[in-house]
Design a protein that fits this description.
Hydantoin permease; mainly alpha; single chain; two-stranded antiparallel ribbon; 515 residues; 23 helices
Length: 515
């Protein structure tokens, strides 16, 4: 068995340098890297942050001006009182928000932030904030496109990157298939890590409750593994509406529980709060960082791990946006921008508080913070903030529970979104079932890694490579479709009561024209 896993790791050894090349290009070229300040900005950073700035300016900072409107949409009773022909079709805006949050608020909110800080220092968190603020309009843009070009399938809506990509590239069949395959491959590469995370965190919780370490070769782990696959399969084969029933319940619980737990840690350490802000801003702006390599490292890690967490500009959350029923495409755009705010400005920031205030990432062995299993390192930080209080065990248990829920909702979300992407390739039932089964098998592979006590570190490199390749595919599409988004936004802001149709933006909209 060990030889099999070693062979898999060796096979994917090429992934890490390829991923690093795309993320670092052209800063990995000496002539470019020697340019003061500019030499720290990779193409990926320019695309993500630059596009966010551009869309923010063109949309008059809609992430700020319509933030309250987004909250009203989410909290309005109207979003659960769908009427007319749409009563049994699609999911509510709130359900779409929870579904997208199930993907956004994943293990990356803990593992990604701890990794970014361990490599780029506290300043990386500041660049997460910057990329997220402007990324809110990028998320708005791609969500509006997902709504404009969504399609109706039985009692569900399907939409997102493969669908608007096909339309924007001349309605070419190959474009939709290529984008669908890209997402499915990306998701399948991420699933093993999620299966690994769920099982290992359940084992961690069991060990905390029993006060002993449970061997991964014990019957307990195998029972949990089987139950996890069965439960995941039950949800996945229920379709998008079954998935949303789960995420509607789990996302609020895990978000509130995590926020309250970390707030307790912050309140227990008020004297460390000034240190947190000082470390973050000093790491981002001190002259040594700006004119030296530290700036580029902090910037790259902040944007890279921010993307891994909130996925703004990646197009991978657009499936949830396209599945929603709403009165106007821009409503779902505003809702999805709030999802980026929740993910990065709230959840990731709270994780940053724990890591920075505990200040353990610089201790001996800190290189292990960026290994596949970084949860124990984060738990060490949490425990360090509860000295002599008797709360350490409770806090660690609650954080581990949240991590488990983060990983599980991300797991079912990826399988569900893969199914939506697969609809762009074929709507045959056998093909959709094949995608579901493939997702379960690959998840089982990740679980086997956990049971075997193995660390497939290259899984993270595969995820990073998938992230940046989809960004390079999606961002140009956002520019191609931006004229439709700008016209739709102007119509929405006008609020004259006229219905949204393809005539508003000057192109055919399959659903909206026949609504």
């Amino acid at each position: 068995m060990q030889q099999i896993f070693d062979a898999i790791n060796q096979f994917f050894d090429f992934v890490t340098p390829v991923s690093d090349f795309f993320w670092d290009f052209p800063t990995n070229m000496e002539w470019y890297a020697s340019i003061p300040i500019l030499g720290n900005f990779s193409l990926a950073v320019i695309l993500l942050v630059g596009s966010g700035i551009y869309f923010s300016l063109r949309l008059s900072f809609i992430q700020v001006t319509h933030f309250k409107q987004g909250i009203r949409i989410l909290t309005s009773r109207k979003q659960v009182e769908l009427t007319g022909a749409d009563t049994a079709t699609g999911i509510s805006p709130l359900a779409a928000f929870f579904l997208s949050s199930a993907m956004r608020v994943g293990p990356g909110n803990i593992l990604g932030v701890t990794g970014a800080i361990s490599v780029g220092g506290p300043g990386a968190l500041f660049w997460m904030w910057i990329s997220a603020f402007f990324g809110m309009t990028t998320a708005y843009t791609e969500a509006v496109l997902a709504q404009i070009f969504k399609q109706k399938k039985n009692t569900e809506f399907v939409g997102g990157l493969p669908f608007y990509g096909k339309r924007l590239l001349g309605n070419k069949l190959w474009a939709g298939i290529l984008l669908s395959v890209m997402y499915i491959v990306y998701a399948m590469c991420c699933l093993p890590a999620q299966g690994y995370n769920v099982v290992s965190s359940i084992g961690e919780m069991a060990g905390i409750l029993t006060g002993s370490t449970i061997s991964v070769t014990s019957a307990f782990y195998y029972i949990i593994a089987v139950l996890l696959i069965i439960f995941t399969g039950y949800i996945a084969f229920g379709g998008i509406k079954k998935v949303t029933k789960v995420t509607d319940k789990m996302v609020p619980i895990m978000a509130v529980l995590y926020i309250l737990t970390v707030l307790v840690l912050i309140l227990l350490n008020p004297g460390r709060i000034p240190y947190f802000f000082g470390a973050v801003f000093a790491g981002a702006f001190c002259p040594e960082a700006v004119f030296g390599g530290l700036f580029g490292t902090a910037l790259a890690q902040g944007v890279k791990r921010g993307l891994m967490s909130n996925e703004a500009g990646q197009g991978t959350i657009t499936m949830a946006a396209g599945a929603a029923t709403c009165d106007h495409p821009c409503e779902q755009g505003i809702v999805q921008s709030i999802g980026v705010f929740l993910d990065t400005m709230v959840i990731c920031t709270l994780t940053g508080f724990v890591v920075v205030m505990a200040h353990l990432w610089t201790t001996p062995g800190s290189d292990a913070w960026f290994a596949l299993d970084r949860l124990p390192r984060f738990l060490e930080s949490a425990a360090a903030l509860t000295p002599n209080t008797g709360l350490s065990t409770i806090v660690i248990l609650l954080i581990t529970l949240c991590f488990c829920l983060f990983a599980f909702t991300c797991l079912v979300g990826m399988i569900s979104f893969s199914e939506i992407a697969a609809n762009r390739i074929s709507t045959h039932k056998w093909f959709i079932c094949f995608i579901r089964i493939l997702g379960l098998l690959i998840t089982a592979f990740g679980i086997l890694c956990s049971l075997a006590g193995l660390n497939l570190g290259n899984l993270w490199a595969i995820s990073d490579l998938g992230n940046i390749l989809i960004v390079f595919a999606n961002i140009p599409l956002l520019y191609l479709g931006s004229r439709y988004v700008f016209k739709a936004t102007a119509h929405y802001k006008k609020a004259d009561g006229s219905p949204f149709t393809g005539e508003v933006i000057g192109t055919e909209c399959e659903y909206w024209d026949h609504k």
